Amino acid sequence: MTRTRLAVCFARESRFFNLDFVTPEDLRNEEVVIHNSVQGKAWVSLFHKDSPILLASNNIGILKDAVKRGRACSVVHEFMFNSFPEAQTGEIFMVPLKDKNYFYEECWLTYPIQAGVSDEAKQFMKYVAVEMEKQAQLNKRSI
What is the pLDDT of residues 77-115, one digit of tens each? Predict the structure, then answer.
């Protein structure tokens, strides 16, 4: 279990490029793409009440492409964003989301003890742990 910040992902040409953070008010009327999940829909109701939804999909590649092309923005977990190749090349960037009632989110994993954890799940857990440690190091440098 860990705690991560939320951020908003934009195309490099976005007017939000030089901001230290964005608020839900800043995002008013900005088109948004969301992951078609309970969490994605919850984020829309919290942060994008006045924003038109351009696309809802389970395909992260499609969502990233819409952001990269400057069509929309998207709320992401900060540690997840850093693993995107488009973030590494600078095609997309993130700005921390700041809201007086909501800034961090808990991330956790549960599984049935009898079934154990598959090798793929173990690899994913290791990957997430590495990415979160990278993010923790970046956060320490920016404080």
Answer: 777 777 788 888 989 998 988 876 655 566 556 667 777
Domain assignment of residue 24, given as a range: 2-108
What is the CATH classification number for the domain harbouring 97? Answer: 3.40.190.10
Residue at 115 is within a domain? no
Summarize pLDDT for 61-71 with one digit per residue, the tens. 898 899 999 99
- pTM flag (> 0.85): no
- Concatenating the DSSP letter of every residue in the chain gives -EEEEEEEEEETT-TTTT-S-B-TTTTTT--EEEESSHHHHHHHHHH-TTS-EEEEES-HHHHHHHHHTTS-BEEEEHHHHTT-HHHHHTSEEEEEB--TT--EEEE-----TTT---HHHHHHHHHHHHHHHHHHHHHHHH-
Question: Is residue 62, in this structure, part of any structural domain at all?
Answer: yes
Query: Could you tell me if residue 136 is inside a domain?
Result: no
